[in-house]
Amino acid sequence: MSATLTERYISATVRSLPAESQEDVRAELAASIADAVEARTEQGEDPGAAEREVLTGLGDPAVLAAGYADRPLHLLGPRHYLTWRRLLIVLLWIVPACALVGVGLSQALIGADVGTIIGEALGTALTAAVHVAFWTTLVFVVLERTGAETGEAWSVDDLPEPKETGTGRTDLVASLVVLGLVLAALAWDRLIGLVRLEGEWMPVLHPDLWPLWGSVLVVIVLAEAVQAVVLHARGRWSTGLAVVSTVLAVAFVSWALTLFGNGRLLNPELLEMARTVGGIDAEAMHTLGVILVVSIVAISGWDVIDGWVKTRRDARR
Fold first, then answer.
1. Are 147 and 173 in a shared domain?
2. Pair 175, 311 in one domain
């Protein structure tokens, strides 16, 4: 004889409960269901239909069993969610970036081609991000299931101070001074030279940069100055300013890496004297070149990220 719907429902509910509580839950459920079905039949409802409606109203047996066992039906609950989220964001900012730079630098130092450098660096960074997300989440799932605490308790002392976004007068002056020094250094390097070797001043940048490529760099620097003035006048970052900052950073990186890749960024006479007089061999020159490229990309990348972070912060104010 086949089991009734009620018997099947009760069995599905209690089978995942601890053995010591199964009989109590079975008896409680049977009595509750019987009372509900009886109330419906007394109102003239068909017994079979009444039983089906009562069981449907109770819902999924697994959900009901989780309620009896006080077992969460979510991966992370509100107790640990914010801690998990804060930690995961910090780790995803740091670990994949370090992996990207580290692998890219190591591949560049061993002389790998550009495609290999990009592929290995991006692949490692993506793998690192996946591992960070998985293992961090797994740790908090274990904490959630075991009822353990993270040791983090909020207090009013944790309230953050309002952060400036670099739009004050001091920030404007600092930006214009730095950009002015850059223009002065370009002029000095062009007219006299920034490095003195063997009693002679030598330019650092390739003499053939002027007038075309040198003028492009001057335009980028002047555009940075205009952006700083506009930012100060507006008093806050906006999406448009963040886009301009990104475009200028990309323009500078493209300018620098295009010339560097073609051997037209640095003064070849200076490099030759560094090899002969300074005793810097080809391997050391290659390492210095890699460090220069990584520095250019890192500084420009940070400038882009900083602009978008400040834009988001100002949008919330």
1. no
2. yes
Here the tokens at position 166 are: 């670099």
- Residue linked to tokens 């920034």: 194
Q: Does the pLDDT value for residue 1 go beyond 60?
A: no
Q: Are 98 and 104 in contact (CB under 8 A)?
A: no
User: pTM of the prediction?
Assistant: 0.61
Domain hosting 143: range is: 78-154
Task: Give per-residue pLDDT as tens, 96-121.
Answer: 988 888 887 777 777 777 778 788 88
Structure tokens given for 136? 């961090």
Are both 185 and 304 inside the same structural domain? yes
Alpha-carbon gap, residue 97 to 298, rounded angstroms: 10
Per-residue pLDDT averaged across 271-280, rounded?
A: 73
> How buried is 238 (Cβ within 10 angstroms: 0-12 exposed, 13-18 middle, 19+ buried)?
middle
In a domain, 164, yes or no: no
**Is 162 part of a structural domain of the chain?**
no
Q: Note whether 30 and 62 are same-domain residues.
A: yes
Q: Are residues 62 and 89 in the same domain?
A: no
Task: Dig out the tokens for 249 from the structure.
Answer: 């950073």
190 and 134 in one domain?
no
Q: What's the start-to-end Cα distance of the chain, in Å?
A: 69
Beta bridge partners of 195: 202
Within a domain: residue 13? yes
Q: Does the residue 180 lie in any domain?
A: yes
| pLDDT score for 154 | 62
Q: Please give the structure tokens belonging to residue 44.
A: 């003239």
Number of domains the chain contains: 3
